[in-house]
């Protein structure tokens, strides 16, 4: 917050820096290289971007709180019944101004001051904002494989006033689809950072590790592995550039470009991290070395917002 990173994507009149998708991609790539586990994705990208693109009347004060780090807002959208990432299958229901349901894997949910909840209603999908300490809200904290905090959040007869409705019907669906697409781009940029770090750290390590009186980087079979890691990371960067150019367009193809990127990093990002772990030997799986944590991060990124198979099918439609 002191460096202004939380304010990057927001307009200056909202207390932001007026940054664009390129600025965010640079940030997330560096997050990936350093395995940053702060809730930037949950607060700034998912909740902040959704509020920023909405017509919600109280969004200015909420975004200002996010930008200064004073407020944590989490988007609660996933449910246990969302097989194959079908987020349109919504069991959480808003009826007669009362919210009931359970949301799972709510990123940073145990630290959130408020939740933006995707629910069903008579008007179709609806997005509402709820205080985390409201009557009927219960939170069960847990941790993901890559060290991030998340929660299962239950809503039991939670009262919701009309002023808490952010969007409904087609507007809510478009708003949600666009923010998930944007989040896919950001975590893919994070994956590019992970892939780059895996390649660079592995090359450095194999130059220092000696076997048979020579660095193991001299062995051709290991060189082939590292060349593959380099090629996969460069292809991911090219797909990232293309997705960045299209993500804010009004074209329906913007979803396909992000799906192509997410499918690539989901498959080859994990493969690069696996190669890095293997080339580091037993040290690669130790808690003290970064290499094993890159693999955990890539597993988590692949599972977020649709895995490689899901996005490959989305690209092919």
Structure, described:
The two termini are 41 Å apart. The chain is elongated. The chain has helices at residues 21-34, 40-53, 59-68, 169-208, 220-246, 253-280, 290-303, 308-316, and strands spanning 73-76, 93-95, 98-107, 114-121, 124-131, 137-143, 149-159, 165-168, 210-211, 214-215. The longest helix has 40 residues, at 169-208. The model has no long low-confidence stretch (mean pLDDT 91). α2 (40-53) packs antiparallel against α3 (59-68) and α2 packs antiparallel against α4. The strands form 3 sheets. A 4-stranded mixed β-sheet has the order 1-4-5-8. A 4-stranded antiparallel β-sheet has the order 2-3-7-6, with no helix packed on it. By secondary structure, the protein is of the alpha+beta class. The protein is built from 8 helices and 10 strands.
Secondary-structure blueprint:
Elements: H1 21-34, H2 40-53, H3 59-68, E1 73-76, E2 93-95, E3 98-107, E4 114-121, E5 124-131, E6 137-143, E7 149-159, E8 165-168, H4 169-208, E9 210-211, E10 214-215, H5 220-246, H6 253-280, H7 290-303, H8 308-316
Parallel strand pairs: 1-4
Antiparallel strand pairs: 2-3, 3-7, 4-5, 5-8, 6-7, 9-10
